[in-house]
Amino acid sequence: MPIRVLTVDDSILFRTIIKKEFAKYNDIEIIDTAANAVEAEQKIMSLNPDVVTMDVEMPGMNGIDFIRSFLPKKRVPFIVITSSPTRAFDAISAGAVEFMKKPLVQNSADMDAFCGRLASVIRFSSKANIRSAPARPVSAPTLSITGSPAANKIIALGASTGGTEALIEVVKRLPKNSPPVVIVQHMPAGFTKMYAERLNRICQMDAKEAENGDRLRPGLIILGAGEFHLRLAKDARGYYVTSKPGEKVSGHCPSVDVLFESVAEVAGNHAVGAILTGMGADGAEGLLKMRKAGAYTIGQNEATCVVYGMPGVAFKIGAVMKQLPLEKIAEEIISKVR
Question: What is the pTM (predicted TM-score) of this model?
Answer without folding.
Answer: 0.88
